[in-house]
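Sat 14:20. Reprocessing the chain from the morning session after the first attempt stalled halfway. Input below, unchanged.
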Amino acid sequence: MSNEPNVWPPAPPEAPAAPPAAEPVPESPEQVMQAAAARIAELEAQTAELKDRWMRAEAENANVRARAQREVNEARQYAVQKFAADVVEAADNLRRGLDSLPPPAEGQPEIIARLREGLAGVERSFIAILERNGIKREDPTGAPFDPNLHQAMSEQESEAHPPGSVIQAWTPAWTLHGRLLRPAMVVVAKAPPPEITVAPSKLDTTA
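Finished this time. Tokens:
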């Protein structure tokens, strides 16, 4: 009788040893070159895709910077738009004051002539200051009617002016850096109605 103790459950049998790993089959030079070419092509495709993404991102960033700069410039230029509109009203009033003076005439009182010259000098200086700050005045008399710059107050038949042209400007057009501040109040020419020609009636002389 054996003196060895009984073990339950019995130990599993030992697993057979794994066979030795097979050595890799050496590749031929052609296979190595093909694998290398495929890898190079893959890397080139990835590089091209990354470059395209980078260029798109740079273009988008450039557009964002340009748009932001444009908005800043516009905000700087047009921040004084309301003030400029009030200033051109003063310029129009100065012109109305000049137009209300009697025209130069022989024997006119010297005070009238001096007043006219003084107001005209003030107006020239005032207009020059406005132009240096981007505010421009335009007299549309004789120009084609432009709804972007002119406001038609009335139409007038005229044979001396082309239809659709400005016969008279009550006020000029004012712009701030090319943007309309105040439209010109104008009178627009229209063609006169066509003359109606009545054919002479024929008398019946057969009676």
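The radius of gyration is 46 Å.
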